[in-house]
Design a protein that fits this description.
The complex is a heterodimer. Chain A has nine helices and no strands. Chain A is mainly α. In chain A, helix 3 packs antiparallel against helix 4 and helix 3 packs across helix 5. Classes of the chains: A mainly alpha, B mainly alpha. At the A-B interface, helix 3, helix 4 and helix 6 of A face helix 4, helix 7 and helix 8 of B.
């Protein structure tokens, strides 16, 4: 694992700030054409989760990387829905994402402590990384739910995202965005920028699918805006990923066919 | 809707919290019974099913949830299900999960026996505790067993039973609280995943079944999952269903 270009604090700060700002603009403005901003927030949150997965899984957790991504969204879904429901119960819709985030950080810290203190996995960064992963999970779920529903209101999200079943693709694609980048890139030559640019492209795929879902739910034009922006982000980041793969390929690369001379 | 308060919801639904904790502990113990081999088993170099704990637990748990959800729908036509209905629903969920996990093990064994060409054998015990068959001569050199011998198969079926039972119990308890199938099922999946991943760290990814020495670690997972389920349960029962908001 090489020296990181971005420290954990920088990645977390960007993930939380961009994630929350995106969710709030999309949720409060009430303009369906701005719903894609929540998706962009969720992409940054995906990157924050992927960076935490990268740090904790480089210790070797023995169960495979996917387990921790599913754990993130398992904790995230409970906290996200709790936050939105509390906002509705106290008639203050805007506190929802913050309450969900804070609760997820608490659950993540408790589960991280249980893993280290009770199960004795003894990974020094476990508490911190599970806290970040749970936070990323809640921001990803809230972000994509707000993007699909175009609102932060609990009843609207239940009606348009959960009852319709669109929560299932959001859940799995959100988890994939967090767990897949490191799972695909792990190994002795893993580099942070390559893993994280892959996280952006996974998040963008989730955003495109979320856009397809929102065509039926809110406004066709808002859905198409999300799809087009998601595709543009995916293209840019995936091309960046391919460029970094070529940069990191020690023995050179060929598009197809036999390995180049000297690589064997 | 003004009378919905956090304390009120907690006071009213404390039974559901206990149910969620019981369900979570069932899931945690169930994970220890399922023969998980991980990546080595996928290459027929270790005993068990060739994938990770979470995939197996999620697969059997979701099959159980589907079965339980269907049963709940059928039984709730006559009114809100009581204790006897909940027992029936949990039994349906347990059977659904058992069918999924046993079919996975059966077809996996066909692939190991007829495709890879290895005899199912356990490296953790000399003689199969159920059939008494000798195991050591059949373990290929350089591996830690392969396939699913009888004891692993039986153990896996018990794991599916406990996993399905726990998942369905969590689902029923949430349905009592919010009465909304969509919210309850997605929450049950969340609680299920948390309670499946924590034990999978406890067994460090692989286990053969109840005859494996790692099975002695169960109490640690039960304690961890008790705390985690308590936390999840308290949060989950506070969330009211749509009907409380006067929605659909």
């Amino acid at each position: 694992m090489s020296e990181p270009a971005e420290t954990a604090n920088q990645v977390d700060a960007k993930g939380i700030v961009v994630g929350l700002v995106g969710i709030y603009i999309a949720g409060i403005s009430g303009i369906p054409y701005l719903a894609f901003l929540a998706g962009i927030g969720a992409i940054f949150a995906t990157k924050m989760g992927a960076d935490a997965v990268r740090r904790v899984c480089s210790y070797g957790i023995g169960t495979g990387v996917p387990s921790i991504g599913m754990l993130a969204l398992g904790m995230g879904i409970i906290a996200a829905m709790f936050g939105l429901a509390i906002g509705k119960m106290y008639k203050a819709v805007f506190i929802g994402p913050i309450v969900g985030l804070v609760l997820a950080l608490v659950i993540g810290f408790v589960v991280g402590s249980l893993t280290n203190k009770v199960i004795k996995l003894n990974i020094p960064v476990m508490e911190r990384c599970l806290t970040e992963i749970a936070g990323a999970g809640v921001l990803v779920l809230t972000g994509f739910s707000v993007m699909v529903a175009g609102s932060m209101d609990f009843t609207v999200i239940v009606e348009k995202v959960i009852t319709t079943g669109y929560i299932a693709p959001i859940f799995i694609l959100g988890a994939l965005g967090i767990l897949h980048p490191f799972n695909a890139s792990l190994g002795p030559d893993e580099t942070q920028d390559r893993t994280l640019v892959h996280a952006y492209s996974c998040g963008a795929i989730a955003m495109v699918i979320g856009g397809v879902c929102s065509i039926a739910v809110i406004d066709p034009i808002a859905g198409i805006i999300s799809i087009v922006i998601g595709l543009a982000i995916w293209y840019a980041t995936f091309m960046g990923f391919v460029r970094l793969v070529k940069r990191d390929a020690g023995a050179g690369y060929v598009g197809t066919g036999l390995l180049p001379p000297g690589a064997m | 809707m003004t009378d919905i308060t956090i304390i009120g919801m907690l006071m009213e639904h404390w039974v559901s919290i206990i149910g969620i904790i019981l369900g979570g502990i069932c899931i945690a113990v169930g994970v220890h019974f399922v023969p998980v081999g991980g990546a080595p088993a996928a290459m027929a170099q270790a005993t068990g099913i060739g994938t990770g704990t979470v995939q197996l637990a999620a697969g059997s748990g979701l099959t159980g949830l589907l079965a339980a959800g269907y049963m709940y729908m059928t039984l709730s036509a006559a009114g809100t299900p009581g204790i006897s209905e909940v027992i029936l629903i949990c039994a349906t969920g347990a059977v659904g999960a058992m069918i999924m996990i046993t079919v996975t093990m059966l077809v996996g064994n066909w692939v190991y026996i007829y495709g890879v060409g290895v005899p199912p054998a356990s490296a953790k015990v000399d003689h199969d505790p159920i059939t008494g068959d000798s195991q050591a001569p059949y373990v290929a050199p350089g591996t830690v067993g392969q396939g699913m011998p009888t004891v692993c198969f039986v153990s896996g079926a018990i794991g599916g039973l406990l996993g399905g039972l726990g998942g369905s119990l969590v689902y029923c308890m949430l349905m009592w609280v919010n009465g909304d199938a969509a919210i309850s099922s997605i929450f049950a999946i969340g609680v299920f995943l948390v309670n499946a991943v924590l034990p999978s760290y406890n067994i460090q990814g692989t286990i053969e079944g109840f005859h494996d020495p790692k099975f002695k670690r169960v109490p640690k997972a039960v304690l961890a999952c008790f705390i985690a389920s308590l936390l999840c349960g308290i949060i989950a029962v506070i969330i009211p269903g749509m009907s409380a908001f006067g929605g659909v």
